[in-house]
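Hello,

Our lab assistant flagged a job as stuck in the queue for most of the afternoon. It eventually completed. Since we weren't sure the result was trustworthy after the delay, we are filing this so someone can double-check. Below is the sequence as submitted and the structure that was eventually returned. Let us know if re-running is recommended.
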Amino acid sequence: MIEDDPKQQEETEAPDVQKAGDAETPEGVGTPELEDAAPQEDATPVTPEERIEALESELATQKEQVLRQLAETENVRRRAQREREDTIRYGASALAKDLLNVADNLQRALQAVPAEARESDEVIKNLVIGIEMTEKELLTALQKQGVEKIEPLGEKFSYEKHQAMFEVPNTGKPAGTVVELMQPGYIMHERLLRPAMVGVAKGGPESPPGDVDHIDTTA
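-- returned structure --
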């Protein structure tokens, strides 16, 4: 029996070991091309001055945001306060409007009674006194809520407070003057509840323009 020569066996197995080593080594590892392609970190240090500048910029941004939020909060607070004040001032405007018709009817009732009947008939006289007292109490209650009557006879017509029903020619008054009052108007504080219904002079010279009172007509 012939034994295998150890040297020959070593030479035979050596190529396999070399191949195995080649297989275990990843392709491209350690090559100059890949080492050059690897990202290099910026090693430039940040100076204290740059760090302080960045912090100051961030602080200024945060401060500006806080100031904006504070301003918005203040605006919301003021708007809510105005709404509360308007609610208090004009909360009774709807009721006041309804009561204006009552005041008108009381005035019509007084105007319907002839002056002779007031003097000659004691019953009618007492009835008129009762109506006058009721009207006075009603107007006093309205005044407590800031309601005032508009009776613009002799005044210059105002588009914001008056409603022209007709024109009256040859009155001897300047054009645009209120010469007849059909129905009084009312305002509540600065807000118009109802315009006064009036007749306006047509002829005559134009009256000089005057300051027009600005009345809130949103009621």
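-- support follow-up --
The delay was a queue issue, not a problem with the job. The result is valid. The two ends are 128 Å apart (CA to CA). Residues 17-21 have pLDDT under 50 and may be disordered.
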